[in-house]
Amino acid sequence: MAISLRRVFVSLIAMLTFAMIVTYAITCFDKSELKVSQKIDVHEQNRIEQELKKLERNKKNNPNEVFAVDFKELVHFEWDKMYIFGPYADGKDVNNKLGFHWTSETFINPSDEAHTIIFLKNNKIINYVEYWSFFKLNKEIFFPNDSKFEAEIDTNWVYWKPAK
After folding, report:
1. Could you tell me if residue 35 is inside a domain?
2. 3-class SS at 150?
3. Domain check: are 104 and 80 in the same one?
4. Whole-prediction pTM value?
5. Over the chain (164 residues), what is each successive 10-residue block's mean pLDDT?
6. I want to staple 92 with a disulfide (CB 3.0 to 4.6 A). Which of 23, 35, 79, 105 is the partner?
7. Is residue 154 part of a domain?
8. In degrees rounded to 5, what are phi and psi of residue 16?
């Protein structure tokens, strides 16, 4: 009798654990409201990240030269709005600013230098880049006419700031 109760208990725990995992997965990954206008281009994500890293290396090697990037010219797709969410961005806040559900309500950037750059066109996500670097920003939303950033050096760290 004790063995069968133990089996029932273990089975019950296993079923509850499975139910919790499924519930968590649905909560975190349910993109039924996701507003994506096309398939996300991973190659473009990598190209953007590589170009930004190349400019950062150039700035480190030539600290007195100006290195800038204009996202309007850098990306190979049309967009009308760009968000840059910084370290430890709260998913609920991100969803509220986007105006629709995109990510889980936990943090989306788990590091001091993690940033998510999201490009939208007509309030639909065109592409995004998870970029590990530093930004000095006074806002999170940018448009094609104000999407130019300059690389600066603070001690040994390169960071991006909006160009003047």
Report:
1. no
2. strand
3. yes
4. 0.73
5. 61 55 45 53 88 91 90 93 89 89 72 86 90 86 94 84 88
6. 105
7. yes
8. -65, -40
